[in-house]
Design goal:
heterodimer; A: 11 strands; B: 343 residues; alpha/beta; 12 helices; 18% strand; globular
């Protein structure tokens, strides 16, 4: 129940981001523009984030009940201007590892959930004024994961393999506060088309792996069959020579394919640091 | 131009996301009736033998709902609810259907309780001898009987059998005139283990059965049956006669083993009809935390005949109390006579 308002907020945030995309300035001119400049010395921002929060897992292949519990993640992101287009087009890579221990509503069964995601995105600048840097682009991402329950039987676990192309929107707002130049960033990624592995409604992994009997186990996904999104919002605070990063992430992975429903909802508070490296080429 | 395109795409993405939103499952509340309803619906949508059971003994799952819904009251305590739900599960007459609670596990046992046991572990001790008299390897116990017949006791398929273990077993028994594989009271385990043991008796890749699964919640939503092809054991072929001993408690993966080897030229199945259990079981949980296991993926023999109700032996043989009192396992003796006759 706790997650549904957050997911609604997450979808709502898309609407807010769109208003910015229409070219309306969000803030005054006093704030500094986020600095991704100087193609001669290309800056590369490495951001490490550790997240802790709650997970809500539903996979009707395993159970029709929602399992909830704490989750932990580690994310490494790089952000750099491209060599040919400079600051007008940035390239982002993202690698996320995520684990969660979730429990049935009555706490009688435990399940373990883990994912590894890799993504590469290209963001074109749409707007850069009044301290706001707004970009939109495309992302290619792939992930693998599993949910393992302690229930036993011939369906104790569910594997996940996904690859998709997503639209992505990224906003950064630089401002001064307490005498420091801070940057507020928000990024939303919405998968638009992809493929995923899934067993069929009542298919066992024995059939797939021991007998080699596959039955339409790779399915195309769309926003209708797999409505998913990821929202990451961070505040970068310079502290001496380091930059502290704190934020929030909502990761909503869902699918409803072949009679099997799945959702992996994660809400996490993120904390980490940003390190800027200049590449001289 | 590019900016306009990106604006349009983002607006489309948001519109799609707004339209699709949360993927959730509507489940019954954690009440007495809610748990009854959840259990009945889970079985209704995922159990795989409704059609077979309707043909075999007239099961009407909708009628079962009406009959048991009338017995559910919110004033019931846990044990009373368990008793009613377990009784409902037993309407399926399936040993793979179990209801799990912290205080009890329901099981349907008429498939063996109503029949002779045809097995006595006191006799097994006589035929296998003391611990030092027989070999133990790969979950199997085996020895060479005085008339040069190899006797292999396979009590379970719960653990995997290594290639090396099976290799050594065959090397130990290779000079025997015939082989007895005793899978009586073997309650099953891993199908892959059953396939590996069966592979010893095959000379070429062989279609030993068929497997299918449900593709939707309807009682007849099934995939096209796919052949279960078993390859011969690498480097070894047992060509001499084999007798497989069965009783009613030969169940699940052991039932599948009998299904794989029955019909092979040099294999004879002797004993009682097997117990069945031809549905690969899945497990899930109820809103109150209890678990339910049920048959989910049906398997068939090489003639596409269901084996859920068991497999008839080639030669029926019962073990009588008088035989037990004499210290004689009639099934093993019948198998030895058969192997001698085939020499």
């Amino acid at each position: 129940m706790f997650f549904r308002p957050l997911i609604a907020l997450t979808f709502l945030s898309l609407g807010t981001a769109t208003a910015a995309a229409e070219g309306q300035p969000l803030v005054s001119d006093t704030a500094a523009t986020p600095a991704i400049t100087a193609p001669a010395y290309r800056p590369v921002d490495h951001e490490w984030l550790v997240g802790y929060g709650g997970a809500n897992v539903l996979d009707t292949y395993l159970s029709r009940l929602e399992y909830t519990g704490p989750s932990l993640s580690v994310t490494h992101t790089t952000l750099r201007p491209t060599r040919r287009r400079g600051d007008a087009l940035t390239r982002q890579t993202m690698l996320t590892a995520h684990v969660a221990t979730v429990h049935s509503p009555t706490d009688d069964y435990d399940a373990y959930d883990a994912d590894l995601w890799a993504a590469a995105a290209w963001h074109w600048r749409l707007l850069n004024r009044s301290g706001v840097d707004l970009r939109a682009g495309v992302m290619a991402e792939a992930g693998a994961g599993f949910t393992y329950t302690e229930m036993g039987g011939n369906n104790p676990a569910q594997g996940r393999l996904t690859a998709d192309a997503a639209l992505t929107l990224r906003a950064a707002y630089g401002f001064r506060c307490l005498g420091r130049c801070m940057t507020l960033t928000a990024q939303t990624d919405v998968p638009m088309a992809g493929v995923m592995f899934t067993p069929r409604y009542g298919q066992s992994y024995y059939e797939i792996f021991a007998l080699g009997q596959t039955d339409r186990n790779v399915r195309f996904t769309t926003p209708f069959s797999a409505p998913s999104l990821r929202l990451l919002s961070t505040l970068h605070i310079p502290l001496g020579r380091a930059t502290l990063s704190v934020g929030y992430r909502a990761d909503v992975r869902q699918s409803n394919i072949g009679g099997l429903k799945c959702h992996l909802w994660n809400n996490q508070v993120m904390v980490g640091y940003v390190r800027r490296v200049f590449l001289a080429r | 131009m590019l900016h306009r395109l990106l604006h349009t795409l983002m607006a489309a993405a948001i519109a799609l996301a707004s339209l699709t939103a949360c993927v959730t499952e509507d489940v019954a509340p954690d009440t007495r009736y809610g748990n009854f309803s959840f259990l009945w619906q889970t079985l209704d949508q995922r159990y795989c033998f409704f059609d077979l059971k309707a043909r075999t003994y007239g099961l009407d799952w909708q009628e079962v709902h009406s009959r048991y819904a009338a017995r559910i009251s919110e004033k019931m305590d846990d044990r009373q609810l368990f008793s009613v739900l377990a009784e409902m599960c037993n309407e399926l007459r399936d040993g793979h259907v179990n209801l799990f609670s912290p205080f009890n596990t329901s099981r349907y046992g008429a498939w063996y309780d109503n029949y002779p046991a045809n097995y006595a572990d006191t006799l097994e001790r006589i035929y296998l001898g003391r611990a030092e008299d027989h070999y133990t390897s790969g979950g199997l116990k085996f020895r060479i009987l005085p008339d040069n017949v190899g006797y292999v006791r396979c009590a379970s398929f719960d653990t995997s059998m290594g290639d090396g273990s099976l290799n050594e077993m065959v090397r130990t028994l290779m000079l025997c005139d015939g082989l007895i594989i005793d899978v009586r009271s073997n309650g099953g385990g891993r199908l892959t283990t059953a396939q590996k043991l069966a592979s010893l008796f095959l000379n070429e890749p062989t279609v030993c059965g068929y497997q299918q699964h449900k593709t939707g919640p309807g009682h007849n939503d099934f995939s096209t049956p796919e052949a279960v092809v078993i390859d011969p054991f690498p480097g070894l072929r047992w060509q001499k006669s084999v007798v497989v001993l069965t009783n009613r408690r030969t169940y699940s993966a052991a039932n599948a083993f009998v299904m794989y080897v029955k019909g092979l030229d040099h294999v004879t199945v002797l004993g009682d009809r097997t117990g069945g259990g031809a549905g690969l079981p899945f497990q899930t949980d109820l809103p109150n935390g209890w678990g339910i296991r049920f048959s989910a993926c049906p398997s068939y023999d090489r003639h596409m005949t269901p084996t859920e109700e068991g497999i008839a032996p080639d030669i029926h043989q019962d073990l009588l109390d008088a035989d037990i009192n004499r210290g004689t396992d009639t099934l093993i003796e019948a198998a030895r006579n058969l192997l001698r006759a085939k020499q």
